[in-house]
Design brief:
heterodimer; A: 92 residues; 5 strands; B: 365 residues; four-stranded antiparallel β-sheet
Amino acid sequence: MNALLVLPAALRASAGGNRALSTAAATVGQAIDDLAITWPQLERRLRDEQGAVRPHIRIYLETDDISDLSGLATPLSEGARVYIIPAVSGGC
Amino acid sequence: MDEAVVLIGTRKGVVVARSSRARTSWELDPLQLMMNTVYGIGIDRRRSTPRLFAGATSEHWGPSLFHSDDLGRTWSEPASAPVAFPADSGVALTRVWQIEPGPSAKPDVVYAGVEPHALFRSDDGGITFDLVEGLFNHPHRPSWVPGGGGACLHTIVPHPTDSDRMLVALSAGGVYRTADGGASWEPANRGIEAKFMPEDQRFPEFGQCVHKVAAHPSNPNRLLAQNHFGVYRSENYGTSWDPIENGLPANFGFPVLVHPGQPETAYLFPLEADVERLPPDRRCRIYRSRDAGDNWEPLARGLPQSGYHSLVLRDALCADTGDPTGIFFGTRDGDVYQSLNDGDSWELLASHLPDVLAVRAIVLA
């Protein structure tokens, strides 16, 4: 089973230039856990060292914000697309 | 190498200004680390090619610490977090506020002061850092509170000759010092007034909001401090402090700088008050002392003298290593000024940058 993590342009340099990364993880959280090994710089862009997703990041499974599903425990299915999105916030 | 560099940390990235040793004209590199707020910058002059540091925080992607070994032309960071709290600490890094090379006897030691209140130490030249547990586990830590800028450890003053001694300042907790290499720490705030406390509690053991501390390596026992109300001097490495405000228009402000070539010369940028964080008379004036703070005089030549509403933050006043010494300051409205005559007159080095948060400078030998 493989799902796809789709990255915003600002994070591609932290993933070897890839626009998207394939994952065999069972949940969104496990997929990010795996990044700590394969792409650690990318992982720490997404979460702090206590595991909390950074406050100005939104993660969508297809068209749904995972915070409206099961958060990081949201399960992944074959072919699912997970979108990492910089929130419309962040100040100036 | 005939080169001078001014490293400028701004709200939206880092800018490097370059000149010859004469420092008569400057060119600015394009903004780097774009959309990162760069509070903590540093230059480690102990290396053959000085290593530059930039503590950068992206509102979206979090904090990191970058370094440059080519004088700011390119920046790097390790794959894993260079500065991170241990998993069992229950705390996450918000921002790197301060980067300070250790004493000359420890050429690979670099310290980082961070938010939330903590000190980190690197033993590999500033690439990776570990939490200084002795300060993090101090029984006072739960009582430290954030200042207006955050819960930051913003000042690190390593002792120049005794690598076991060091002093830090944090907002709002005050000054702490160690004599055993960071294993244990004691507050060092006697004489510093906390005017924001009730009248009968204004000289606590700790809890003061010290904004910056500066020292000269030739006399490490003498410290100058710009406090949240109050400018102070200690002659005993922080055991006690006395006010030094003669000639100042106000005693609030953020930066304090000691001239690297003249231990008795120091600089401030006074502001009216905590509820009026604007320069007195709306004039841009650096204040200088030639007698270690006993007396202060305004320096205004070349600076805006009417309708001025900007200010200089705690790390945006610095000196370089040139001859003559260059004094530099950056402002929240994006200007950087320099003086090559100890502040007698000033020239605009850069303008229209994002808010300047920190400035450091070096002249290469």
